[in-house]
C-alpha cells in the first residue's frame, strides 16, 4: 500500500507540474500576441532585438538551409515524378509534388530547423537568466521583460519561419516546374492552371496559419520552459531537453491538425 501511495503521489505531482507549464505556456503566448498587436510597444530597442533575432535565426543560415531545401526538394520531386510516370499518372506529378513539398514537408522542416538552431538557444538563454537572477534584476530596475526580452524574440522567430518557408517554397515550385516541363516558358499557362487548382483561398490561409503557429511554438515554448527552470545550474540542460521534447510534440500536433483540416 505505501508503494502504491508513493506512486500515485509522484504521478499526481508530475501531472500537476505538466499542467502548470502548459498553462504558463498558453498564458505567455496570449500575452505576447496581445503585446505584438499593440503599436505602443515598438521602439528602437524592441526593433533592434527583433532584427537581431531575424539575423541570427534566418539570415545566418539562409544559404546552407536553402541549399539543403533545394536538395531535399529535388530528391522528393524526382521520386514523385518517377513514381507517377511508372503508374501512368504523369498528369498529376506536378500537383502531387507541390502538395507534398509546399503544403507539408517544407513548412515542417523549416520549423524543425529553426527549433534546433534558435529554440534551444532561446531556452538556454532564458534559463540561465532565471538561474542567475538576471530577470529579477531587470524587473526591479523597471524593465518590462515581456516587451523588451521575450516579445521581440517571438516576433523575430515567427518572421524567420515565415520568410524561410516562403523562400524554400518558391524554390521548390521552380524545381517542380523544371522537373515536369523542363526549361521551356510556353508551359507557364498550364503551370499557372495547376497552381490555381492547388492554392485556393482555404489552402493559402491554412499555409500561413500553420507557419505562424510553427513560428509561435518554436519561440514561446522555449521561453516558457526557460522561465520554469528551477534556480539550479544543473537544471539548465534538463530544461532545454524538456523544452525541445515538448516543442517536437507541438509541431507534430500542428502538422496533424493541418492535415486533418485539408484532407478529412
Task: Give a structural overview.
This protein has helices at residues 2-36, 44-59, 62-86, 93-131, 134-140, 145-181, 188-198, 201-227, 235-263. By secondary structure, the protein is mainly alpha-helical. It has one domain (29-263). Helix 2 packs parallel to helix 6 (145-181). It is globular, with a radius of gyration of 22 Å. The model has no long low-confidence stretch (mean pLDDT 84).
- Kindly state the percentage of residues in helix: over 70%
| Helix count, DSSP H or I runs of 4 or more residues | 9
Strand content: under 5%
Number of domains: 1
TL;DR of this structure?
The chain has 264 residues and is an all-alpha fold. It is built from 9 helices and no strands.
Question: Which descriptors would you attach to this protein?
Answer:
globular; 86% helix
Amino acid at each position: 500500500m505505501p508503494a502504491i501511495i508513493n506512486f500515485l503521489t509522484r504521478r499526481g505531482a508530475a501531472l500537476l507540474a505538466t499542467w502548470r507549464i502548459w498553462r504558463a505556456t498558453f498564458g505567455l503566448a496570449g500575452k505576447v500576441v496581445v503585446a505584438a498587436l499593440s503599436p505602443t510597444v515598438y521602439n528602437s530597442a524592441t526593433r533592434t532585438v527583433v532584427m537581431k533575432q531575424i539575423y541570427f535565426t534566418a539570415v545566418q543560415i539562409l544559404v546552407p538551409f536553402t541549399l539543403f531545401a533545394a536538395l531535399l526538394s529535388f530528391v522528393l520531386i524526382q521520386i514523385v515524378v518517377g513514381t507517377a510516370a511508372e503508374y501512368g499518372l504523369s498528369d498529376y506529378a506536378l500537383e502531387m509534388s507541390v502538395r507534398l513539398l509546399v503544403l507539408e514537408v517544407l513548412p515542417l522542416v523549416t520549423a524543425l530547423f529553426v527549433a534546433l538552431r534558435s529554440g534551444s538557444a532561446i531556452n538556454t538563454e532564458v534559463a540561465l537568466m532565471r538561474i542567475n537572477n538576471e530577470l529579477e534584476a531587470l524587473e526591479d530596475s523597471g524593465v518590462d521583460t515581456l516587451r523588451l526580452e521575450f516579445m521581440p524574440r517571438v516576433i523575430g522567430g515567427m518572421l524567420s519561419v515565415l520568410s524561410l518557408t516562403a523562400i524554400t517554397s518558391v524554390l521548390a515550385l521552380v524545381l517542380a516546374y523544371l522537373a515536369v516541363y523542363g526549361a521551356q516558358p510556353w508551359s507557364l499557362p498550364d503551370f499557372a492552371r495547376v497552381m490555381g487548382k492547388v492554392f485556393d483561398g482555404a489552402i493559402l490561409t491554412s499555409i500561413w496559419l500553420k507557419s505562424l503557429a510553427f513560428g509561435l511554438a518554436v519561440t514561446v515554448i522555449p521561453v516558457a520552459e526557460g522561465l520554469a527552470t528551477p534556480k539550479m545550474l544543473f537544471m539548465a540542460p534538463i530544461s532545454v531537453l524538456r523544452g525541445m521534447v515538448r516543442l517536437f510534440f507541438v509541431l507534430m500536433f500542428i502538422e496533424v491538425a493541418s492535415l486533418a483540416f485539408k484532407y478529412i
